[in-house]
Design brief:
Elements (H helix, E strand, L loop, with lengths): L5 H12 L2 H20 L1 H8 L5 H15 L3 H12 L6 H15 L2 E8 L5 H15 L2 E8 L6 E6 L2 E6 H16 L2
Parallel strand pairs: 1-2
Antiparallel strand pairs: 1-3, 3-4
Length: 182
């Protein structure tokens, strides 16, 4: 869940942008600035330093956004974040924007760990099954985890669907162990 301080910024961004596609169009600019900010400890320190003049920080922000080609609405959001000493928390704001977009578009993220990388057909079938179960559009985020031995584990929010061979083997082992001690 997003940090509590992000809600007013996200609500204002959605209100000013007006449409979901307009908000989505801002994400590359915000991601670009967030990447520059995360890559430069010096830049983060300048924006965090309370001893530096606010107008100097604002000029620096303007120079960076101009160099990156940041659009006017994204630049305005960055300026407001700077004014409120939240610019170094841009990643949290962007995450909250994405969370709100997912909510508004009825999208859920399913994190899939599988013993081997999923093939396109497998990923499609899994997405379709999960969409039927959740009645939402599912965005799969997959990663290979060989320790599962076979099968997969899916996490959607707090729900976990475990169809891994490693878990089945643990259950069989536990049942055999119980049977031996009964």
């Amino acid at each position: 869940m997003a940090a509590g301080f992000t809600k007013p910024y996200v609500d204002a961004l959605f209100a000013v942008a007006g449409t979901i596609p307009a908000v989505e169009a801002l994400l590359p600019d915000l991601d670009g600035f967030a990447h520059v900010l995360s890559a430069s400890a010096d830049l983060r320190e300048v924006f965090r330093n309370p001893a530096l003049d606010r107008s100097a920080k604002s000029e620096l922000l303007g120079a960076v956004t101009e160099k990156l080609g940041t659009g006017p609405l994204a630049a305005r959001l960055l300026s407001v974040l700077l004014l409120n000493r939240r610019l170094t928390h841009l990643g949290e704001v962007v995450a909250a924007v994405r969370e709100r977009l997912d909510y508004d578009q009825h999208v859920v993220e399913a994190k899939v760990r599988s013993a081997r990388p999923l093939e396109a057909a497998e990923a499609g079938a899994l997405r379709e099954a999960l969409e039927g179960r959740t009645r939402r559009t599912v965005r799969l985020v997959a990663e290979a985890e060989p320790s599962l031995l076979g099968g997969f584990v899916v996490r959607i929010g707090s729900e976990v669907y475990d169809a891994s061979l490693a878990t089945r083997l643990r259950r069989v082992r536990a049942a055999l162990h119980e049977g031996m001690h009964a």
